[in-house]
Amino acid sequence: MSSSSHVAVVIIGFRNPGDIETCLASLALSTHADFTVYICENGGNEAYRLLTATAPDRLPGGQAVVTLNPGDNLGYAGGINHCIEAARGAYRAVWILNPDTEPQPDAMAALLRRLDRGDVEAVGGVMVSTNGQVQGYGGRWRPWLAIGGSIGLFARVDDPVDPAQIEAEQAYLIGASMLVSRRFIEQVGPMRADYFLYVEEVEWCLRARRKGFRLGFAPDAIVRHHQGTTTGWAGPFHQRPKLSIYLDARNRVRLTRQMNPWFLPTAVTGILLHSVWRYARRGAWRQVGYVFEGVAAGLRDESGRPSWAG
User: Fold this and answer.
1) Considering Cα of 171, then 175, then 181, then 183, what sign does the dihedral take?
2) What DSSP letter does each residue of 231-246 carry, written as one string?
3) Taking every pair of C-alpha atoms in the chain, what is the biggest distance, in angstroms?
4) Terminal-residue alpha carbon distance, the chain
5) Which of 133, 172, 250, 259 could connect to 297 by a Cys-Cys bridge, CB 3.0–4.6 Å?
6) Under 8 Å CB-to-CB from 300, ≥6 apart: which residues?
7) Torsions phi, psi for 13 (to 5 deg)
8) Where does residue 68 rank: exposed (0-12), middle (13-18), buried (19+ CB within 10 A)?
9) Nearest to 225 by CA among 59, 97, 79
10) Which residues of 99-117 are buried (b: 16+ CB within 10 A; e: fewer)?
11) Got the DSSP string for the chain?
12) In this predicted model, what pLDDT tens digit does every residue of 95-136 receive, in sequence order?
């Protein structure tokens, strides 16, 4: 198999075969047909059995679908690394795609067209919510507060965009859909599996930028995202689960410790104040407590899957 245009599509599942079935149906319509899908099921043996009962071995266009059972929950970054290892370098690029996404037919081709211009090593596109509003074109990062923000949030999908301006502003790509070159992986290294879940794509992109790699944006790469179907992140604030809130706070502290330690006092303050603004004003006091626990764990530099997590 030639790797000159081949894409390894990487999907991490966690007991959500229905999401993955929908995502595969969208991939089957891709105008770029040279790809293999790798799915890592982090949800255990029973979840893997259900996945293999649902997912085909090949898409209608002949593309192979490789399902992987790591035997444990590797976390999001660990699962991505596991899939990349399984691909054995036989790819031009890796497209990391959330299982709860539906890429438009030309999305993969658009990402590759931007990558093939040769001045960037990773590319993002337009993430769209189910109501048609933009979730983001890319991400800004404020290191002194350890707070990210989506560029273009709540814009309409047909609003005009300036790709050069977005590329100048973005510090990281939105992790639900990001295409990275083989050179990116070889030079930047794998994702930080010790983050387990959340903020790993921010760290990966910031690490790449420190090595001089640029991040691209493809305005024609449109991906619909049913956000938070696995983690519960998109649910009502007072119902959001501990794991996602805890890890988001913990890993923002860890990222600051690792990359900008001089900002640690202001970052911790920013994370805590942001949590009060986000949760306390809505009466979600239990979720505020999860943030405090995560910040404390980050200050202790704890890593990996929390001992209390399933």
Assistant:
1) positive
2) T-TTS-GGG--HHHHH
3) 56
4) 39
5) 250
6) none
7) -100, 155
8) buried
9) 97
10) bbbbbbebbbbbbbbbbee
11) ---SS-EEEEEEESS-HHHHHHHHHHHTT-S---EEEEEEE-S-HHHHHHHHHHS-SB-TTS-BEEEE--SS--HHHHHHHHHHHHHTT--SEEEEE-TTEEE-TTHHHHHHHHHTTSS-SEEEEEEE-TTSBEEESEEEEETTTTEEEEETTT-BTTS---HHHHHHH-SB--TTEEEEEHHHHHHH-S--GGG-SSSHHHHHHHHHHHTT--EEEEEEEEEEE-TTTTT-TTS-GGG--HHHHHHHHHHHHHHHHHH-GGGHHHHHHHHHHHHHHHTGGGT-HHHHHHHHHHHHHHHTT--SS-TT--
12) 999 999 999 999 999 999 999 999 999 999 999 998 989 999
Distance of alpha carbon 129 from alpha carbon 104, whole angstroms? 13
CA angle 64–66–69, rounded 5-degree value: 170
The number of residues in the chain equals 310
List, for residues 27-70, the tens digit of each pLDDT value: 999 999 999 999 999 999 999 999 999 999 999 999 999 999 99
Residue type, 74: L
Residue 228 pLDDT: 59
Model confidence at 1, pLDDT cuts 50, 70, 90, reads: very low
Q: Are strands 101-103 and 93-97 parallel, antiparallel or unpaired?
A: unpaired
Measured CA to CA, the distance from residue 39 to residue 80 in angstroms comes to 9
pTM for the predicted model, two decimal places: 0.95
Integer CA distances (angstroms), 55 to 7, 20, 38, 71, 199, in order: 19, 8, 11, 18, 29
Token representation of residue 18: 């229905």
